[in-house]
Design brief:
203 residues; mainly alpha; AhpD-like; 10 helices; 67% helix
Length: 203
């Protein structure tokens, strides 16, 4: 079965402008895609795209959470919302951040996060589920999170999950098409930016 047509098609330079065209290529280099459809679609709203990109970059790759934890949260959001575009991107980014193929598969397969997920990873996944289901983190889980994460990380985790829930709603509603497979990793600017994207954020 073919994918449904996008409701708003990805734009070219005429639609998104010169500045956004450059930003799209740089941002694509960070995540290893030539011209990601998420960027060329959202960039049709030119000014809003640039402001969103700054905020999004502050969470990923510029956040304070460990990159593997960030990617677990994003993958769980993608699984909970049925967002194939988000999953396609972050399955690959998650592997670069150190997640195993088994961990990634379990994020999507497990309806409930059980005790097999230990430590901070399990807490991140449970927080993502609580925010998705209830719109808030309950007292018991919050106490567990507060014992394992500092204040900055707690704020960031809530914003991270909320942001990717919002993004999943947008991607699903606009029917942003999946990107073609990424080209092999190269050197130069792309290689350096992709290396940066694979590192943990500053503590």
């Amino acid at each position: 079965m073919s994918a449904p047509a996008p409701r708003i098609a990805p734009g070219g330079r005429r639609e998104i402008g010169l500045v956004n065209t450059v930003l799209v290529r740089v941002a694509g280099a960070v995540i290893g895609r030539e011209v990601p459809h998420i960027f060329t679609t959202l960039a049709r709203h030119r000014g809003l795209f640039r402001r969103w990109l700054i905020f999004a970059g502050g969470l990923m790759p510029g956040g304070t959470l460990a990159r593997a934890e960030t990617e677990l949260a994003i993958l769980r959001v993608a699984a909970n919302t049925g967002c194939d575009y988000e999953w396609d991107h972050h399955e690959r980014i998650g592997r670069r951040a150190g997640l195993t193929a088994e961990e990634i598969a379990r994020v999507r397969a497990e309806e409930t996060i059980g005790e097999s997920w230990r430590g901070r990873k399990g807490l991140v996944l449970r927080a993502a589920d609580a925010l998705h289901a209830d719109g808030a983190i309950g007292e018991e889980l919050w106490d567990e999170l507060a014992a394992a994460f500092d204040e900055r990380e707690l704020i960031e985790l809530c914003l991270l999950v909320g942001h990717y829930e919002m993004l999943a709603m947008t991607l699903n509603s606009l029917r942003v098409p999946l990107d073609p497979p990424p080209s092999p990793s190269g050197g130069g600017l792309r290689g350096r930016l992709r290396l940066l994207a694979g590192r943990g954020g500053a503590r």
